[in-house]
Every structure is written in C-alpha cells, then in structure tokens.
Specification:
With about 210 residues, the chain is mainly α. The chain has one domain. Helix content is about 90%, strand content about 0%. It is built from eight helices and no strands. Helix 2 packs antiparallel against helix 7, helix 2 runs parallel beside helix 8 and helix 3 runs parallel beside helix 8.
Length: about 210
C-alpha cells in the first residue's frame, strides 16, 4: 500500500500540474460509477421485491378501482407503483400524459451521471495532450537555456509529457468501459419502465 501511494505521489510530481485535474477526473469517475451501480442495483432489487404488490396494482386497475390501485401503489415497494402513484397525484395533466411524464422523469433520474462519465472520457485524453504540450515546451525551454550538454532537464520535460498522456488515456479507457456498460444497463431499465407503463395503459383500456 505504501509503495503504491509512493508511486502515485511520484507520478503526480513528475507529471506536472496537469496531473491534478486528471486526478480529479479519476476520483469523479470512480464516485459516479459507484453511485450509479448502487442506484441501479437498488432499483432492480426494489422491482423484484415489489412484484407481488405491482401485480395487485395492475389487478385493481383492470377492475377499474383506481382508489384501490392508488392504495396498493402507496404500499408497494415497486418503483413502477411509485410512478403510477405520482401520475395519479398530478391534476395538471390527463392520466396518460402524467404517466408518461413521470416515467420519463424516472428514466432521466436513472441516467443522471452518465453524462459526467461521457465528459471524462473525452476530457481526460485532452488534458493528457495538454500535459504533453506543456512538458515539451518546458523541455525546449530548458534545452534553449542549458543547451544539449545536460539532458537531465530535457528528460524531465519529456517524462512529464509522456506521463500525462498515459494518465489521460488510462483514465479515459477506464471510464469508457463502465460508461458503455451503464448505457446498456440503463436501456434495459428504461425498457422495463416502458413495459410496466404500457401494462397500466392496457389494463385501463387505453389504446
């Protein structure tokens, strides 16, 4: 552990000031990935735990007993039931429109954070290139002031350029994998919400 921390500290020092925003990108990416995984897991577990309650909600809707459906939705752990309850509570829209609006709001909530990962995937390599440019500029400045007789300073500038480039690429690749996996996962959750809301409309006899 100490060796790993020492290595990170050394790379941060040798990589120059651009390593700090790169480190921030990596921390944000890890936090976003953890948050999204937990959010989606809890959503899926709630759907599974509330299956029986959701079936009772649909049964009440089929019978035309909206009050019973609302009562069952309030007791159910299913996120689908929460969407239905929120749609019933809206008086500003027809029920079908309110149901669509609440479903879309839930889909947007589940997608929140993916844009941050997408930004990090694009931003990290650009920051790496910026570090490359500043490192090479520093190397040429030292070469101009010290000449080519002392390659130590020049080597430090080139090392800074290579370290930031590598760091940017590593962060981008590491964020790209959960981003693409998250998009697939989110589409699956969105399809589940769409299927559940379609079932409600069919139960109500909505064309």
């Amino acid at each position: 552990m100490d060796a790993a921390l020492a290595l990170v500290a050394d790379l941060m020092h040798r990589g120059g000031p651009v390593m700090w925003p790169l480190a921030l990108c990596s921390i944000v990416a890890v936090l976003v990935v953890l948050r999204k995984v937990l959010q989606w897991l809890f959503f899926m577990l709630a759907v599974r735990a509330g299956q029986s309650g959701w079936a009772r909600v649909l049964g009440a809707v089929r019978q035309g007993d909206l009050e019973a459906a609302q009562a069952e939705a309030a007791k159910s752990a299913s996120p689908y039931a929460h969407i239905l309850a929120a749609a019933h509570a809206r008086a500003d829209l027809p029920f079908a429109d309110a149901l669509l609006a609440e479903a879309q709001a839930q889909v947007r909530l589940l997608a929140r954070g993916l844009g941050v990962l997408d930004t990090i995937v694009t931003l990290a390599p650009m920051l790496g290139i910026l570090g490359t440019v500043t490192g090479i500029i520093g190397a040429f400045d030292l070469m101009g002031s010290m000449g080519v007789d002392d390659p130590t300073g020049v080597a430090g500038g080139i090392a800074e350029a290579l370290i930031t480039t590598a760091a940017g690429l590593v962060i981008s690749i590491a964020a790209l994998i959960p981003l693409n996996a998250g998009r697939v996962w989110h589409r699956a959750l969105a399809r589940g919400i769409e299927t559940a809301m379609t079932a409600v409309e069919r139960a109500q006899g909505t064309p």
